Amino acid sequence: MASSPMRPSFNIAGPCLPGEHYMVPPGRRLGRALELIDEGKYFTLTAGRQTGKTTSLYWIVSHYREVGTASALWVDLQIAREEPDPAVAFDAILRCLDRAVQADLPEVAIPADRASYLATPAAALELYLGDLAARCPLPLVVLFDEADGLVGKTMVSFLTQLRAGYIARSKRPFPHSVALVGMRQVRDYALAEQDRTAVSWLGTTSPFNITADALTLPTFTRADVEELLAQHTAATGQRFEPDAIARVFDLSQGHPWLVNALADEAVRREVPDRTAPVTIEHIDSAKERIILDRRTHIDSLISKLREPRVRRILDPMLAGERTRGDALDDDFAYVIGLGLLRRSSGTYEIANPIYREVIPRALTYVDQGQIQIQTAPFVRPDGALDVPKLLAAWQTFWREDGHLAAEGFSYRESGPHLMLMAFLQRILNGGGRIEREYALGRGALDLIIEWKGVRHVIEVKLRRDSYTEERAIEQIVAYLDSLGLGEGWLVLFDLRTTKPWAERLWNRTIEHAGKRIHLVGC
After folding, report:
1. Helix ranges restricted to H, 39-151
2. Fold of the domain spanning 26-216
């Protein structure tokens, strides 16, 4: 008896495979890339981690195989990453090309003179691609994945050879189109100062000054998310409630891995019964589990938080401050490439709400485990959260232990903010959740505590003078207005070590513009 076909699933590991995974059609996000390929252009395609780059490249190879207008080759340069010696690196690069030819163009075969090319690493790539293009019956398209992982002289030689081959295409065979795929645009590829000098004759810091365009692989749209979730409904009968679909998009902002991870967690562990619908509560629980389990994707992001160039951006962002003068454009490009940051309406912000939670929770994970305090004392008999008691306990903790722990953070600017979040998270793990809003230059960290369906707003600022307090009050009033709330908390940190604790710790309540504001000095 014939076996029944396997049911597709949400993909959270590796490239998507048709028939095995629910998929948004890759070609939908690749319109401009296909135009550039058809026009014979060389270009870059960038995207953050696990946003579908490899799935997209698989699809391009398959697409041109089907339409028959070009022969596409996907070349994974992973094994050549971080290798500065061109002799070693180009041996690895040619081996990557060998595997790609065997997989995607077996009828063309590996160049017969391939072994001799390595005698001159500075020409090996150009010779290999020229031979391949000469024997390929259709225009050759080469997609170099992980190209931004090459470094130093290897990077310079790799890009210079592509440029030389491109310029001479009218005289000898060379690929019709080349795409460099990774997390950064060519202009942001890391070159040491001496390498920049070596290519300065081009009038640019990059020898690959032949790119026609620098594309970014877009995230899923709201409609894409709906379509992906609907595929599960069609396959199993289990539907996602409309507000659950909205929550998946809001939490992920269309990041493909996060969309799939939230949906997979919900249907596999939260609601395995396919007759029961997936609700917004299930998605929220799925989000929490993904964060706590520190899935591979989340863990790979967390591992980057200690890097100086990442810290230069995120530290002031957590405090709502502007970056210092030592933060460079390349630093922003790098953090955007990691997928941690995005530009929205001309300003930088954390890419999505899940990352907004992951970053401070990861940075304070060890500290949370050392805070010896329980949830129960801060819950009133009616089940409500006792926020005045909670923040009074925070003031005691800050004076006794918190300020010292904050000084030990590598994230010095945001140390007080991180300790407050660690303290609150430790307590709220007993039944509530925190939403965090922070961005460069906002001057504040906004926290929304949600407990038993009730929202409590806390705004955090570093106190510098009376103007700071007045401005902070206006800000929190505007924020409360936007949320339709009448009461909020303003936590002001006074970091002057010469000021005695008796003067730094205080509480005051004011009425302003129809709102009740509780001021908490720390």
Report:
1. 53-67, 86-104, 114-117, 121-135
2. Rossmann fold (3.40.50)
